[in-house]
Fold these 4 entries.
Entry 1:
Amino acid sequence: MATSLDTAAPQRASDQPASTSTPTRTRRLRVPSRDTALRMLSATSGGVLLYLSNPPRPEWWLAPIGIALLGLAVYRRRARAGFGYGFLFGLGYLVPLLHWTGVYVGPVAWWPLSAFEAAVIGLGTAAIAVVTGLRGWPLLAALLWVTDEALRSREPFDGLPWGKVGFSQVDGSFLSLGALGGTPLIGFAVVLTGFGLAALIIRLADPVTRRDVAALAGPVVAIVLPVLASIAAWPLVGTDPNAGTATVAAIQGNVPRLGLDFNAQRRAVLDYHVKETLKLAAEVNAGQVPRPDLVIWPENSSDIDPYVNSDAYAEISAAVAAINAPVEIGAVVTSQEPGPKNTAILWLPGQGPVQQYVKRQLQPFGETMPARSFFRLFSADVDRAGNFVAGTAPAIFPMGPARVGIDTCYEVAFDSVVRDSVPGSNLLAVPTNNATFGHTEMTYQQLAMDQERAVESGRSVVVAATSGVSAIIEPDGRVIRESELFTPDALVATVPLRSTTTIADRLGAWPEWVMVAFGLLALAFGIRARRRDARVRRGQAALAATRD
């Protein structure tokens, strides 16, 4: 119960006009009760623990504990309270997680984005609070969490999947579930475990239920079953080279300077990547490293359009000839209608550019600027955002023995985009540019996505970043080569090529939509049950009043 404190003293009777009988109005300040304060603390702490479970920290096991604290906060609360506690949970999670969005533009982007996404989480926890009065509520709550993540990953502005629980688990046993149902199934398992833990704590805290074995069985199953399922799923994570092997190279040329203006010296960025490729070619010719079958350059490695700039064309051609292997070049192409495009170009020795892929999932407030005139009212930095044109189809690059599916940077966060790149491929490449985010955790969060995608697709993944972290990842999610931030490097490794598809890719979005459907059904039952209970209480109150 909330208490109240008078913040204005009442008037004395002598001060009142004789003809006035209206009582004095006082302003009242509501103060959270001890129970409410504890729930607020529990929700916020749970969000912080979920953040701490994300890379670069390996404490993946903190995620279910954080979810358990959220469950304790919203248990048997009204939907409005569930929204509030979920909002606090979301702030505790997303404010530190998304810090990188404001590293060079300040809180004008970071705080509103975090607050908005926290509000979307609040919508989910409002629904979760409604179902906590039903039997088997941890299962129903986990389904609603998946439903909320599905919404957050799609709306608004095509959504923001950053922060999905599934991406926090690349160092833990739950990762194997990605091969069965992708990020939705991983997230479901983690959240079910967490809510099961909350239910167990609630039962143990109740003197009536803590000695009831049957009452404890449900929460224990909710905790143990996802863990056992994830362990049992590991044999389904394929690593055999059923399409052969390939020696791959990822070039990290670095950038002249940090910050939003890193690409002002576009020629320098191109020169750096040419230089690193020539250095690798010299090491290959000297027998120090094996010759790569294919080479991946980062996104924005040539912000000079090589189709119209002869100098850029000549430099790239010289580097490709020296390494004598197919090279994927990340370029900004301005010479093709209807506008500028973030493009991956397949460049062959002695032939030049032969194929290209245009990035399909563009980053809002970066590569595009929705409602530019409106957001300009808050910050002139919106005019730094581009007017890029999105591509319309995936592409597979034939590169030596490999058939390479391309997913550029931000695209790796989106389930459907990566899924479209798998058919016909036996290797995935993620050219990326994280230079505008400095030394923040952003690049490690994105690397975790790449690791999850390796397991989900059953493919090795080559990550080439302008400034790091570049990496080579095997199909089980293990990183076998990794660069340092803002350090020129060339990573070379031999990886398995795999043409078989995982159960997750064959099922596509179906596991997620099935969980969403059941989650919405659970919410409908929860609303109905609450209305029924309210009618019963009103009836009991009316009967009691009649007896009095």
Entry 2:
Amino acid sequence: MLGIVLVIMRLVYLTCIDSDFLRNQGDIRTMRNIVVPVHRGIIEDRNGEAIAVNMPKMAVCINAQRFCASTEQLTQLALLLNCPVYQLKEKIQNNSNKRFIYLKRGLDIQLTTALKALKLKGLFLRIQYRRYYPQAEINAHLLGLTNIDNQGQEGLELIYHNWLHGVPGLKRVIQDRRGNIIAAPKLLRPAQPGRNLQLSLDQRIQCIAFHALASGVKRYQAQSGTVIVLGVKTGEVLAMANYPSYDPNQPILAFTASHRNSAVTDVFEPGSALKPFSIVSLLEHGHFTKDSLVDTTPGKLKVDDSWIKDKKDYGLINLEKVLQVSSNVGIAKLILAVSSDALLELLIRLGFGHITNSGFPGELKGFLPRSPFLNAFELATLSFGYGVLVTPLQLAQAYSTLANNGVKVPVTFIKQHYLPVGRKVINAKVSKTILRMLESVLEKGGTAPLARIKGYRVTGKTGTTRLVRSHGYDKAYHNSVFVGIAPAEQPEVVVLVLLHNLQTKNYYSGSTAGVIFAEVMFNTMRILNIAPTDQIITGR
């Protein structure tokens, strides 16, 4: 009787006084919180074309405590998962005390029927979403990629991860003793899908730029290359391509140099492509006019026991001719005649030595020397682009500033619906003067007649530099860069082409990077529906 009374008292205590204990114990065994997956936002180009989308994929999971399979079933499962049987056994044995483990993720949905047909105890499937890039290699360096959990790892996927990712939902479900869901009584947190992102990128221009670059890198036996297309008035990146590239749809075990977006993460000496800004510094401070003359005879100049040389003796030439024939002696003499502060202050205003604030991961600021530490020879070589390191994006933005009447606007990867507020860094009259002078570079007698395009006036500058090796600058290794603006009379677009470490005998930028520029710029004009303005020019 005493035992019966004690049992009754215990029942009353558990059911009436301490009922939460039994309820919690039951919940632990039957109730689970399950994450509700959400779509990552779609990335679109400026015209609404999807360039990063979501694909439904399947994850194969097991409750290792309940999993049971015959040798034949395990063999069939390994075949479907495309993995060795011994690896599958090892994974299951090493996690035998766990109720949930992934056997494999990212499988095609079409395998669902075959996996269910195995009727394996403790095995269940989950639908997840993986990123898919339709134009894989073409956009790889700009878009970046996500990991298996759809977390942004590189590029724009990383920059705008919080915007794109969304918030997964959470629901509480009731399971039977076999782990099957029999009810979903409560939604703990509603799912918030990621937001779409519209870029400034024009996929049509991007494709043209990539294929022109890929062809050029192979044709001129370059190690790698970069093309950037910028909108002059908006600062929008219309295209940014690198070659070689990679496929972000394939698993990447380790990042290599080919995965870097060289347009923002690599630096180089711009060479003669910096000369227009040396002329700007002279004109802005009133030291010279566009008609000023400089004597380059005999085609070489000795500065601090070192020689600066031209390809030949150009004699007495004006500032426009200095740019047209790209005279090192001429620009060095001009810059040495004034204070070094003028040039350095201008380069700082243009953004050299500082990041562009594009927000791109790993962007470098380059290197710009400081005035008190420059000797005469260093200042002379700085005037034609040596002793300074820039990223391709920095150089393209500087030319865009020159084309925009001296107004510097922020670089952006997002489509702009209004003209941004810029900052005046170059006198507008000087900017227009330089643009007119640079047209001579593409004329007969200039360094880049092959960069002309049919129907448009184009202005731009070449730059060919030797690369530094262990013993100094090596005559056998070169970079080639061309930066051009069109239409010259009313600039809309800047295109930069950089080829790194050319191995061909004809390595000068006018006949390498300039040729690629002509193809990219001509097609960009057509795509943007910019009407021809000069029917006389009979270039490409």
Entry 3:
Amino acid sequence: MKVLFLSDFFSHSFSGGAESNDENLINYLISEGLEVKKDSCMSVTPSDIRQYDQIIVSNFTHLSAECIAQLVKDKNFIIYEHDHKYVATRDPSKFSNFEIPRNLIINEDFYRAAKVVVVLSKICKDILEKNISGVNVHNIGCSLWSSKKLDFIESLLGREKKEKFAIVDSPNPIKGTEEAKRICAGKNIDYDLIKISDHETFLTSLASYEGLVFIPQVLETFSRISMEAKMLGCKLVTKKSLIGMCSEQKLFSLTGIDAIREIRNRNKKAFAFFKNSLLNNDKDKDITVILNCYRRPEYLKEQIDSIRNQTIKPKEIWVWVNHHEDNASFDFGSIGADKVIKNDHNWKFYGRFSAALLAQTKFVALFDDDTIPGSRWFENCLETYKTHPGILGGVGVLLKENRYYGHNRVGWSNPNESVQEVDLVGHAWFVERESIIDLWREEPFCWDNGEDIQLSYMAQKYSGTKTYVPPHPAGNLDMFSSTKGMSYGVDSKATSRPDNHQVFYNQRDECVRNATKNGWEPVYTRLS
């Protein structure tokens, strides 16, 4: 596997905390047998990016719009977040409750397109998820050190300490040297200013002090220097709300050898996470989402946000638009879909299933226009598929003997604790693209109704595929296929509305009668 590591700067030209993190990660990946090439964001081109299987993007302020567009298109990159490049000010701490004004949020699509955004502390994860929905954020809860450097820090333990505190002598105003001096003066804390030049010389000097006074002026995503002080057994005087490490409560409570051991453990897990994220073949989980729009365009943005916020991200989201005056003036460019397929005809229920044939992913997920899934719905489906491969859906129908469409339901409207085999599913479908092909092996019996019946009937008849409802545990809406069906699906725009019941259910009776006459075997026939 060829891995490209992109950053504005690397440790050979700039000795910052981010660059140290990056160098330690790169050295680990190379030691594990991965082929890693470093390239500067200032010089890399889209054609360079296309040569690599996976990309890690560190600091990227100099990355061109063309390169970002290429990465968003390919969706094969990880963002390693060292500061806050999703906010124009680069510091979310200036806003109340870290709620960033919408006009100051930047690079939103870039963050959403990443396979994963790796952050260094809990507070960074919380802020990013609060301000940009649909981002897959993973918190490693640490900065990265080499084993050699941690051995060196450990070797400094037990040294005699001065009854003084250290302040980092930095000309960079965001490091808060002047503020630290004012605090020491106000609290009568005796201190020395120490410079950061050679890192090991600095650590040796810091180890001889009782503590460190460090008052950053922006939110530090982790703060290596604060953690190094803790590992060296120093007290830490700081503003906790501006130190990411302080949001890692267990880690912040430790000092000396205990802190070093915890960092070793967290580093080990973090390195393994990066390696596994690069090596895992996500194509086996790739999902194309197809939404249907007819008379409820007002729900599309909420649907798309809920889908972007899934724990398993889809590769693309498409919207199939059947013609109706209710959506004629709707701005489909405002909803964040990857593709919009607009028709000058109402293809009713089957049209979206024709679009599914164009998907180039293993799985296709289709949703009715009133269906807002919980954040773990795709995760739920993929886990179910491992043990029950077939057509999966949100509401399952179990037909009753000799009752045509008489049935019991299971799913979001009647929660099931475990996987349930059913005759057909509706509201939300999660299927292999190959199963969609089965739908078209015969002309639909009724073009105006019963696409869900026809799909399960054809799949069973031609490929022996069964139909299941994944678990919908009561009280755990994150795993549900639909979280608002009881309110969104019962308005006057519903096809199954009361004034249309007789026509709607007569058609479905006929669809079931046709299918059973021509070889469909409902669950009750196999249980008797």
Entry 4:
Amino acid sequence: MPTKYIFVTGGVISGLGKGISTASIALLLKSAGYKVSVLKVDMYLNIDAGTMNPLEHGEVFVTDDGLETDQDLGNYERFLSQTLHRHNYMTMGQVYWEVLNKERSLGYKGATVQGHIHVPEAIIEKITNTGKKDKADIVLIEVGGTVGEYQNVMFFEAIRRFKQKYPKNVFIIHLVYLLMIDSLGELKSKPAQASIYELYKLGLHPDMIVCRSKEAMDEKRKERISFNTGIDENYIIKAQDVKSIYEIPIIFEEQKVREKLLKLMSLKTKSKDLKNWEKMLANRESAKKEIKIAIVGKYFTSGSYSLEDAYVCVIEAIKHASWAQNVKPVIKWLDVENYNPTELKEFDGVIIPQGWGSRGVEGKIKAIEFLRKNKIPYLGLCFGMQMAAIEYARNVLKLKDANSEEADPNTPNPIIHIMPNQKEYLSKNQYGGTIRLGSWPCKVKENSLLEYAYKKFGKDDIEKGIINERHRHRYEVNNEYKEKLIEKGLIISGTSPDGKLAEVVELPKSVHPFFLGTQFHPEYKSWPLKPHPLFMAFIEACLK
């Protein structure tokens, strides 16, 4: 069977939820018995998302093979319950980079390299390679940005050529937004229609329209869009706001999106299985008991806005583990520079997630001290683990000037220091893609809290005392202080297999009900149908 390609484009406004729609449709097609792959395309010229500010672009997601990507890949993995790779992510920066490198190596055999010819060719090649590498029956490609923007013209040209060459194998789903103007009291569809016309101007005819709106679109609006654009009414789909993104596949299934797409592609349903997904949603709905979780971070606020996307993986991981234990998480975001540690008393558990630089360090250390002394369940992620080691050194080892070289390059007690191989990168200003990235093995200490979590909640994830988790860091625990920390009661329960890198620190259960920090990012590998063992153990401790 030739691979089918479905492009998911957007119009009217950005941030419509193309990623969630793509992930939801991918789940439905996978449930029909097909091998599905997904590709995210961003139009910016960055090679990857690694150097971008979380306040500007949201949380960075890291693949097993070490690429820093857009958060949409995280959504794809969570919905599909499958691991994706660096070939599932493309930026226009990558495309131009490859075209120019090919020209330098005479890959074009002396021809004049032209953007409108060779760039679309390179895009099509990367798309088809994704299908081949994943041996996929169906590939969904989410196109970043909105139709009509100058920066994505080359990409839409690539779609046009691709669809022209393979009309029976290439399809387009276009997301639009229906505006609700309170003073008029109705959904307005003209901007959505104009967005579809923009596709027509580019020589593209969408096969399906998904209409995002605050409230569900009525039949009158559907008829109007169909009449004015020529799109079959049966292929105009409602996508109203919902409480949880995980409801979207069910909303699409109720409108027979799966059946309609398979019919378009001349494919039959091999199977149909959404039972586990529906069970997960039922658990979420039935959960009555609440637990209060605080996330103490520094990427929440931009002006007067609160930006949850900076920690979306952490938030979703909390939800997965809570629903699996039939509880409802109430999550509160505390800006590390604008709170009092005593506020943490009201919470059942606290997480300090990733971060970079010196800003907010002292606030995080004070929070950890309060949590440790008051025996409130604590989970530290990456930077949160490093801050836990510093707090312990300051207040238990009595090294009052202990710090991280990242926060204070001249600290006399660098409990956290830069990894030796990273110094050369920094001296040459080589920041992008040079940190410790991707999945690395970790040796688990017997009879530790770490081992307990994996053996109880993730037996498939631990083998012969080894786990594999994803990393994104440049600094680590300084081995010169390891023995001193251990002597004073801190347990280093996870290390690299050679014992040189500290991966997990914790306190004995006799001292604290749950105090654990990881250098890796467990949140990257939490799925709604398979919550991460460490978040499961954390929520369990919060319940107690």
